[in-house]
Every structure is written in structure tokens, then in C-alpha cells.
Amino acid sequence: MTVFDVKKNIEQKMLKSIESFKMDLGKIRTGRAHIGLLDHVHVDYYGSMLPIPQTANVTLLDARTISVQPWEKKMVNVIQKAIRDANLGLNPTAEGTLIRVPMPMLTEERRRELTRVVKQEAEAAKVSIRSLRREANDTLKKIVKDKEASEDAERRASDDVQKLTDKFVAEIEKLTEAKEVELMTL
């Protein structure tokens, strides 16, 4: 493995950490409806546990209401129960073959609680990025020890890895700040 390979590999892993963090932020609801909220709710569909979007059409009726239309009529009650049991604070109602999922208003206390959750998720993402930096630096030291690269190359690569780390930590902070603003606005 070369110094270039180490930097490229670590950058890809850090990008995956950022994508994972973005997905985690997407799970935290802000009072506005978005169809991604139900992506992680699974239902029993003929013996297989599938996410709701794989068993029904999920759309937005308006800014505060999600519409779920199961492909099979017998799935209406199953999907409705799964949404209710998903512990998202949602109360779906069935109207024939259509399930309406209204988004309740968030209280001030709940908004503050959710901002704490966002901060915890951000800290976990930063820890992930920093552990990737440590992994890259250890790999670079091993490359120098095995005489596959010079100490100068290792030092430059370590500086590049630190710059990548700083860049991704700054991106996490930017995403966190944006999510907190989104949570605190009505």
C-alpha cells in the first residue's frame, strides 16, 4: 500500500462517515413531514421484514402530512400499526386504502431534547472521523517502518490526513448547526 492509497482510502471512509451522519440527522424529525421519516420503519410482508417504501407508495399530501398507500389492501392495518409502534410520536389514521400520517407540532421542550440528540450524533460522527485519522496515521507509520516510504512523505501525508480530518469535522459542525436551526424554527 502506498501513501497515496492510504490518503485516498481514508478520505473515502470519512465520506462514508459523513453520509451516515446525514442519514442519522434525517431520522430526527423537525415537525415538517418528509417521506424519509418512514424509510426505517419495517413491516412484516409475507414473512420478510421490509421498509414501508418497499410495500407502499409514500408521498406528501402537504407540508405536515405524509400519505402512505399500500400496494395491497390487507397491508393497511399492518403498516398503520408499524408506524404507531415505531416510537416516532406519530399517530396514523386509515381512510380506506390510504393512511394519513399527520406530523404533530413539536413542543419547546421536545425541540431542546432533539437538539441534544443532534449534538450527541455529531460527537459520535466526530469520534468516527478522528479514529479514521488515527488509523491512517498508524498505517503511514507502518509503511515507513517497512521502508516503503520516506519519513518526509509520511509527514506530508499525515498533514494531509489532518487537513481532511479538519475539513470533515467542520462539515459535521456545519450540518449540526443547520439541523439545530431547523429544529428550533417553528
UniProtKB/TrEMBL annotation:
The keyword Metal-binding does not apply. Its main location: cytoplasm. Residues 21-184 form the Ribosome recycling factor domain. Keywords: Cytoplasm, Protein biosynthesis. Belongs to the RRF family. PANTHER family: MITOCHONDRIAL RIBOSOME RECYCLING FACTOR PSEUDO 1, RIBOSOME RECYCLING FACTOR. Responsible for the release of ribosomes from messenger RNA at the termination of protein biosynthesis. May increase the efficiency of translation by recycling ribosomes from one round of translation to another. This is Ribosome-recycling factor. It comes from Candidatus Pandoraea novymonadis. The gene is frr.
